[in-house]
Amino acid sequence: MKRRQGWLFFIIFLLTFSIYLLINFPLQLGLDLKGGSQLTLQLIKEEGKVSKEELDAVNAVLDKRVNNLGVAESNLQTLGRDQLILELPGEQNPLSASRILGKTALLEFRTQKENTSSQLKNLQLQRFKLNDLIEQFKIGDKRNEEKSLLLMDNLTKIENDINFSSNNEQLFERLVETKKYISNEIANLFNKTDLSGKDLINAGRRQEQTNNNWEVSLSFSNDGGEKFAEITKSIAGTDKLLSIVLDGESISEASVGSQFINTGITGGSATISGNFSAENARELEVQLKGGSLPLPIEIVETNTIGPLLGSKNIVKSLYAAICGLIFVGIFMIFNYRILGFVSVISLIFYGFFNLALYSLIPVTLTLPGIAGLILSIGMAVDANVLIFERIREELINGNTLIRSIDSGFQRANSSIIDGHITTFVSCFVLFLLGTNFVKGFAATLGLGVVISLFTSLNCSKTILRFLTTYQSLRQKNLYLSKSNPL
Amino acid sequence: MTSFSFNLIKNKNKIFGFSSFLILLSLIGILYSTFNTSFKKPINLGMDFIGGNELRIERSCNEECENISPDLVIDKLRTFSNNKNLLNNIKLQIQNNNSLISIRTPYLTIEESNDLISNVDKILGPLNYDSKNSRIIGPKLGKKLLTNCATSLLVSLFAISLYISIRFDKKYALFALLALFHDLFIVFGIFSWLGVLLSIEVNSLFAVSLLTIAGYSVNDTVVIFDRIRENLKKDSDNYNKIIQISVNESFRRTFFTSITTLIPLLTLIIFGSYSLFWFSVSLTLGILIGSYSSILLAPSFLIKD
Question: Model ipTM?
Answer without folding.
Answer: 0.85
